[in-house]
Design goal:
Structural class: mainly alpha
CATH architecture of the largest domain: Orthogonal Bundle
Number of domains: 2
Shape: elongated
Strand content: under 5%
Helix content: 55-70%
Oligomer: single chain
Length: 100
Amino acid sequence: MSEKEVRRRFSREFKEEAVRLVTEGRRPISEVARNLGVHENSLYRWVRQHAEDPAGCFPGKGHLKPADEELARLRRELADMKEEREILKKALAIFSKHRV
């Protein structure tokens, strides 16, 4: 993309309506894409994402699907626990030296 081209962003509602036009309207993706002014590949991807996870598709910029949010939270928690364990190991080593 050149400097002057700006990547278009579409709202969740727009994507859902586009998918609805394809799935419920029984209209070809090429026709719906042309009428809405979006690339066919984008619309194919939106339809596939909606078919895979209707409730969690199109979470928006900066948001994750609920399952991905839970995974990220658990990874952070695991990292914190590992850090605490290493601190405790070092403290044990320090206190063990002083007891001798």
